[in-house]
Amino acid sequence: MPNTVGKLDGKVALISGGARGQGAAEAETFAREGAKVVFGDIRDAEGQEVETAIRKADGEATYVHLDVTDEADWQKAVQAAIVLYGRLNILINNAAILIPRVPIEERTAAEWDQVMAVNAKGVFLGTKYAIPAMRRAGGGSIVNISSVAGIGQSLHQEPAYAASKGAIRIFTKVTAAQHAKDKIRCNSVHPGPVDTEMFHSAFRDRETLERRLQRIPLGRVGTVAEVVSAVLYLASDDASYVTGSELVVDGGALAQ
After folding, report:
1. Report field, pTM of the whole predicted structure over 0.90
2. Residues in a beta bridge with 187
3. If both were cysteines, with which of 25, 136, 176, 188 could 146 make a disulfide (CB 3.0 to 4.6 Å apart)?
4. Which of 63, 161, 233, 241 is labelled catalytic?
5. 18-71 pLDDT tens trace
6. Which of 246, 232, 249, 255 minimizes the C-alpha distance to 35?
7. What is the C-alpha to C-alpha distance for residues 183 and 225, in angstroms, rounded to an integer?
């Protein structure tokens, strides 16, 4: 699987939400680009299948159980990277949940807390436990997967999801500013609608989907590969002078 010269040769990466969709594609791509990958999720059977597929393609990857709201799970995941592969250079905070949109007054506190726990607290915990390991490695790159919902198009966004993704956007900049001294870069990626199972779960009927596409100048949803290429860029040394930035991959949605 690794290229003769990969963009991530010699790097060790940790990816959350890696059992399917974009996270699985990141794990596969990073391994193909020469990284040793630890990836986690709560979907253990699917995660093991992704690990098997990567290893069959001659990549180096290890699946671990990772509930991103659980501090102990994060500690174990970071430790797995160090024990198995010697260090940690890259963290991709990818795990997230999306719930159907309702008016603010109809959103329950429990639903709000669940979204914030996975989408925002999960990014905080991953960053918290990755920083010491990256500092020992001489630096690293953290890429946080946010959303266009964290920047704009607010009339159309689900409130809890948008708030959680906005939190990631600002937390990314704080991390970048405070840990540049440690040679740790931190950037956020802001996808628009992407062809994933999570996206389609929120747009179950064709009429709603068509209305959403009308707000995208390119007139289509993005592909997982298009987002992963942006994540790969920020994770790699190609982006060695990029930190605290927000990379939008949205088909022009925020340009409207």
Report:
1. yes
2. 143
3. 188
4. 161
5. 999 999 999 999 999 999 999 999 999 999 999 999 999 999 999 999 999 999
6. 232
7. 28
